[in-house]
Amino acid sequence: MKILFPYFADFGAEDLKKAFEQSGHQVRQFSCSLEDLLSPELGDTLSRELARHPADLLFTFNYYPEAAVFCKDKGLPYVSWVYDCPCVQLFSYTVIFPTNHIYVFDSDTCDYFRSRGIGTIHFLPMAADPDRLLRVAGQTRPRGHAPVSFVGSLYTEKHCFYDRMKGLSPYTAGYLEGVMAAQKKLYGCSIIEESLTENILEDMYRSLPLEPDRGSTVSRRYLFAQYVIARRITQTERSELLELVGKEYPVDLYTPDPAARIPGCTNHGPAHSQLAAPAVYGASKISLNISLRSIVNGIPLRVFEIMGSGGFALSNYQGDLGLFRIGEEVEVFSSPEELLDKTRFYLSHEDSRKAIATQGLRRIREEHTYLHRVPALLEAL
Description:
By secondary structure, this protein is of the alpha/beta class. It folds into two domains: 2-124, Glycogen Phosphorylase B (Rossmann fold, 3-Layer(aba) Sandwich); 131-367, Glycogen Phosphorylase B (Rossmann fold, 3-Layer(aba) Sandwich). The chain is built from 16 helices and twelve strands. It has helices at 13-22, 34-38, 42-52, 65-74, 107-114, 130-139, 161-164, 170-184, 192-195, 198-207, 220-246, 277-283, 301-308, 336-348, 350-367, 370-378; strands at 2-7, 26-31, 57-61, 78-82, 100-104, 121-123, 148-151, 251-254, 265-267, 286-289, 313-316, 331-333. A six-stranded parallel beta sheet has the order 2-1-3-4-5-6, sandwiched between helices. α6 packs across α12 (277-283) and α8 crosses α11 (220-246).
């Protein structure tokens, strides 16, 4: 099968291209900007590429409505694998096109759309390429040497929509603080969207007039829940949990915000996902995952790559982690207290920690590589 694969700085783009090719497919991969992928001119770009390189399907990481329009008009299958959550483009009317085959990594997101009659959206967890990850881990020396590490955004460097809301009423401000405090205690479910009443939404909108893009069916409630409140919870939760661990054990933090300061943590700046992060995961005794709160059940790519690098993954509870044997292949926490207890335990029980890392890597190799995902991505064609 011939696959046309435009991409924009996508995690896993080279890994999946290799897996497609190892599965016997031909791939024409070309780089373009995010603006190009979202532009109405995307169809012209794809037409030119297809004229030079005829293809049997179009593939993208994440979903792009203009790509869906182009494929529907050409009768060309469009396969997309969404690793962003939220992905607001999924609220485009174009998702119902019969040429679409859309895969999302969060089972809750899949259930949300399927319950609304959208049959083109399916559940497919992320994956890892252990061969590449282990090779990078063996060739690269991480900048830090603390026993615990976290690689990811603190959401302090961009998209701080919550801080832009000025002039909220005292009632709304207090209400939102209460919702966020309650959500922090809950894993595997979200109460944010249903908690935003019409009066609360109107007050938030007056302070920050977020509007859906043209042609989107997304609700104002969804935008504020996911892009304002969930990000704010993640921002404060990650800082609080890292500080909690940092009070007892040194933590290496790899984050895009060079100004971020958390007691007990050494900020090394960003770790390139392809070139540096695997070495951090392989060298750390404990690699933390603290999920973006928009992800209700899904397993972030970070967890697959920690395990695929031979590292020990300690993650907040996510429903889809049931894909693995908890306590044997990956470890989870459901409260700050449990995070600290398990950090103490596994830093003092090296054999248990190493056994889980070894079994986690084995499970990735056996069931969760990109080679395992290729048949699932193409089975409906």
